[in-house]
Amino acid sequence: MKSEEDQSHVDLRNGILYGTLKQIRIGDDTDPEVPKLLPVWVCSIRPKDSKLLISLLKQNCEDDASIKHLKRLTKIGDYIKAIICPFESEHERTEISNTLGNLQYENLEVINVPRNQANTKETTLKWSTIWPLTWKGNPNHQFLNSVIFDIEQERQMVNELLNRLEKVNNRQASVTMMAKEVNGTITIQCVAVNTGECYPSNHSVMRAIDSIAQRESKQRKQGITERGYLCTDMIVYTTHEPCVMCSMALVHSRILRCTYLKPVSPGGGMESSYFLGDLDGLNWKFQIWRWLGESELSKLDNLIDNARAEY
Predict the structure, then answer these.
(1) Which of 42, 29, 27 is CA-nearest to residue 130?
(2) Which of 92, 72, 93 minimizes the C-alpha distance to 82?
């Protein structure tokens, strides 16, 4: 387990943890010249009312993660302009007015502010001309420094994946395990195998999702459970990078993270092509990791052929 003080296992430059897990994500840390924008509700108040406004917001508005990179208040002339909350619809105006109560405010309106935290201090200053941002360092570096893995448990899961592949005894096979963390222990929920079939619905990832769906259907009939999404909180371990269809299925199933051993170019849907799982504009994102452990990759190479373009 990672110590909060010891960051020696983190390679920020290459996005690698413990020398074994490589983060897969879109592009580099270069910021666009013009940021994507987020509509928010703002109002203007007198400086003397700043503390009262902050108190009202703490009492009545959720601490929304989407605006944490923005400074809540900024001085404009003789007034303070304050972000109240992200904008969803014009119908919120009455509710916001009630939230502000007897506070003396003016110009309750919607403006656009930078949607994301900048990756560099220089870009933070540039985007702050639209609305002041806070600079707390590269957001992905913060993530890598904070993410926690029990690396020995991860290694056990990868070796279990390879053991299942070995038992199949087919050099065209791929294996996917769905797992879930319960009280700090990762437990396998299902195992699916593709013994070489090229039809996409026979890929091991699709078979694993189908297995979870079949179990969910049975439990619903028994009145045991009612999951909103099939694979919420599920951890996926798979021998090969999922293809584009499998990657999108994982997005729609809303998994927690995916770890695979072998990239599959050009058929893979993560690092090999579209970075599905880390792509803006889709309805979900999840962590993507590629396993770098030499002994495990060597065992995989001994168990499979390398000719297939997708799994």
Answers:
(1) 42
(2) 72
| 58: Cβ contacts below 8 Å, ≥ 6 apart | none
Q: What is the DSSP letter of 12?
A: T
DSSP state of 190: E
Alpha-carbon distance values, 23 to 172, 186, 207 (Å): 26, 20, 25
Start and end residues for every CATH 3.30.70 domain found in the chain: 37-137
Q: Are 82 and 73 in contact (CB under 8 A)?
A: yes
Q: Domain 10-28+148-303 in CATH: superfamily? A: Cytidine Deaminase, domain 2 (3.40.140.10)
The closest alpha carbon to 216, from 206, 204, 230, belongs to 230
8 A C-beta contact, residue 28 and residue 19: no
Is the separation of the CB atoms in 103 and 56 below 8 Å?
yes
184-211 residue pLDDT tens: 999 999 999 999 888 889 999 999 999 9
Q: What is the CATH number of domain 37-137?
A: 3.30.70
- Checking if the pLDDT of 219 tops 90, the result is no
The count of other CB atoms within 10 Å of the CB of residue 168 is: 17
Reported pTM: 0.80
Residue the block writes with tokens 């319960």: 182
Chain-wide mean pLDDT for the chain?
92
DSSP H/E element including 85? strand 79-86
Judged against a pLDDT cut of 70, whether residue 309 lies above it is answered with no
**In which band, very low, low, confident or very high, does the pLDDT at 50 lie, cut at 50, 70 and 90?**
very high
pLDDT digits 0-9 by tens, 137-167: 999 999 999 999 999 999 999 999 999 999 9
Q: Where in the chain is the domain with CATH 3.40.140.10?
A: 10-28+148-303
The strands making up 105-114's β-sheet, listed across from edge to edge, are: 73-76, 79-86, 37-45, 105-114
